Amino acid sequence: MSERVSTPDTSSSRKHLEGLSAVSDAAAEEWRTLTDDSVEIIPNGIDLQKYSFGYKNPDPKTILYVGRLEGRKGVKYLLRAYGLLAEENKDLRLAIVGDGPDRTKLERLAADLKLPRTEFLGYVSDERKLELLGEAALFCSPALFGESFGIVLLEAMASGVPIVAGDNPGYNAVMAGRGQVSVVNPRQTAAFARQLELLAYDDDMRNLWRQWAKDYVRHFDYPKVVDKY
User: Fold this and answer.
1) Other Cβ atoms closer than 10 A to 32
2) Which terminus in the chain has less CB density within 10 A, N or C?
């Protein structure tokens, strides 16, 4: 049996709207199928004062994932790519933050792959998340689809942590300009692993990336986003 997806009828409510906004083109697509009215793209924002953009070349080098543990997030591909690197890079570790329906399956995959230095930390507080970002060498969010934006990417940028991100429309809306070097197809395991290694170990690349991120993330500070509204 095929699954049927229905779009709610919004015609009665649309006539009361004076304007439409979306956080990205990806998020605006559904509205554009419902109306000819223009949709203003206004990104999500963050409070930059919460984050500490310090020098980061930590040892051991932690690859950090923060998010829900479900299929579309691509965590199984991160585990496989990490597995290609972990045996030769003894200072590399992987921290998985979050919970979800696939957690047991992913923990089993990590055990089957015999991944060293891999932790599933479950849910953590916002305070602990900030600490983990401060300790990380690399942030990875290999989502395959279903992302309208990507606040977790902004949080990593604001913390000065280089990113490797899945190639999906929402993340591409965030990783503009030099940030495109971070975007990978998570299903291509060898290329994914090379990108993780490059942004974890190549100091020149890390410094260039961090210079870009420090300037770029300022566009998403709350006062600037509020002004757009």
Assistant:
1) 14
2) N
| pLDDT tens digits for range 167-182 | 999 999 899 888 999 9
- Mean pLDDT for 199-211 is 95
Q: Token digits for 110?
A: 């990590």
CA–CA gap between residue 142 and residue 183 (Å, rounded): 9
How far apart are alpha carbons 202 and 220 in whole angstroms? 27
How many other C-beta atoms are found inside a 10 Å radius of the C-beta of residue 143? 22
